[in-house]
């Protein structure tokens, strides 16, 4: 039997079942943290792609491209979290993405501005870029949170997700604005 440390606690014996459980929990937590970091990277790279898509000069083509970027991002997150899913479950993700498009109405309006010669394409492109970045960020954060908590597409709750989405959409627009305002590296001479 192990000696007490004076405060009532006994050290865990190396090789014991408790030590093994502790090690397994530590490894699992490390894997979970690495997964969340990779998910964050996936989301942020897709935000940049979505923002670039906002610069497409053809009205409404940018909105179609945005939905495809988001579908791909959710697919990448599903693979990262090793979630098996059927076509029906994939439809859940598509329904959510398409269901938040009313929030994206600003993207559609900004996209239409691109049809105006000159300043319309600049104003429209900037508006769509920030909105597309915010939408993609929020969508990614919703699915990351759900999958990180052990959720699947089968138990995805649209109402809870929509509330969290609106919260993250504001953060996403801020993130997109920061990306736009970030100092650029000088071009090589």
TrEMBL record:
InterPro entries: DUF697 (IPR021147)
Domain of life, source organism: Bacteria
Membrane topology: Multi-pass membrane protein
Transmembrane residue ranges: 50-71, 92-113, 119-138
Locations listed in the record: Membrane
Pfam families: DUF697 (PF05128)
Protein keywords: Membrane, Transmembrane, Transmembrane helix
Coiled-coil parts of chain: none
Protein name: DUF697 domain-containing protein
